[in-house]
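Recall the central idea of this unit: under ordinary conditions, the amino acid sequence of a chain determines the structure it adopts. In this exercise we apply that idea directly, starting from the sequence alone.
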Amino acid sequence: MRAEPSLPHHRVPPGSLAELTRGEGGPATVDLLTAAERSRRLLLLRMLDDATDLGPAWDLLSAAQRRAPAVVDELLMYPQTGMWLATALRRLRASTAEKDEPPLPVVLGHVRALAAAAALRAELDFTVEVPVRQGRVPLPTLGCAELPSAEPWTTATVRAEAGRAVVETPGHRVAVPLPPDSAGPGWHPVRRLAVGPAERRLEVALDDVDPYRTYPQPTEPRPLPEEAAAQWRQMLERAWRVLLRDQPETAAAMRRGVFSLSPTPARERFRPRSVSSGDAFGGIEASEPDDAVQLAVTLVHEFQHTKLGGLLHLTPLVTRGADSGTELWYAPWRDDPRPLEGLLQGIYAFVGITRFWRAHRRAAGARTATAHFEFALWRAHVNTAMEQIHRHPRLTPLGITLLDTLRDRCAEWLAEPVPEDQLVAARLCVADHVARWRAHHLRPAPAAVDEAVRAWLAGESGPPGALAAEPEVVPDPSARWLDCLAMLVRHRLSGADDGRHSEEPEKAAARVTGALAGDALLAAGDAVAARQAYVAHLAVEPGRAGTWAGLGGALAASDTHPIAAQLLSHHPERARAVHEALLRVTGTPPDPVHLATWLGSPPSEAH
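Accordingly, the structure predicted from this sequence is:
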């Protein structure tokens, strides 16, 4: 096998760079990224051979390449191959293994499984020893043999001769069907899904057995039942129809850059989980979706990450600096603070999602209220994220161009009309999410909080000026479900789109993990009752950060106590910190609205 040089920045055609900086990228641009990724994979494979001497596995791969080069290319570009290469090189550099990771020989031995798969597909006769992982032998792109084993990590032999293939251990044997795309005793094939009309067909592997199908940590094979696999096929067919109708250009590019879909169990409604990795170009891990539109959004989301990951393998968008890894930012799509690199990834992904909802809300048969809300929500969230880092000193010239281009596009979207009901709901959710994030992750200086406590107890007219200083970002690991309000709005709008009446607030809150009665009331439009519910909850659990943010939203929506509403909407961390300190000092909690009004008043002249 021969390694090829990667494609340097100056050889990326200007047209492709222009497409990618717009958050787009047609088939030709995706082909360029794929070619660069192929070169990168070959270099990584050579690095691994230099470090470990792949020996017979390298020889078998080379023989397969001579017989069937397209087969080896496909295996090389399989997302799971890239993930394995990155994992193996990381393990070689690491002094110790992470908890529950397989032994290093099992990780490195995966190259023999890769070689066996290449040789089987190239119709070679061969014998090779491969790892057994907790009773299963995965062969990349083909499937997985299941063999009884008392040991979690051992080895098996793969033999192929005269058109017959087996995987065997002493006393056990599994025949590998040839071609191996059908099930057999002890054999679970990797299913191939082909959806859409012939000229616009998407072909992907539904991979439930490759250990490197989950990102960033490997997961042992978990074959899907036939019924579940059929459900995925049907959902993908519907999602692909949505994309062909709403975003045909994106769909055309996806056909060249999405290679595998790794299914995971369903999650809470409206809270899907999906993951991709720069090391697994073309791979998507996704939870079972609620419906076809949600899966279409997931495909768009992760394909954006795929394109940006490919671009980052060619040229940096961010330089390293003294604050690398320590400077953290608000990401409206996350519960936790994010570094600059992570925020940029999210911006790129959610520009794609915003574009999807913009097109979908205009499509025939779209669930109009939900689509309008999602478009209004994500355009505002993306704009908030971009404004934080606009012209950041660590952005490279190309990074600046990319962010400026996306920012201009978002400005156009912000000017587009959205029906008032959905616009108001989106603005409420945007303000609520950032307030919850601040309440969780920002900490005013302890000395300023102590000074505020003394001023309150002394009866001064306002807080000390020191409390207005920039707070410190202190990641709060307890931060969860900051999207509760948006979740509740989605439940309400989905009912409206389907012609159903909204649920009672108590029932709605019970259906959304992490939601309170106040959240459900606020989402339903009853701001007065929401305020009462939040105050009642603070009396029981005053340290719950999201309740302070929710109270601010309820006060603003009910147009009462404007000073408290302003303080709690923009600086809930001050109210939470001072309230906790007062409770600690006096044993008696102050009235939350009274305290927030005082904190929002002009600083006392005594300070």
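The chain has a mean pLDDT of 93.
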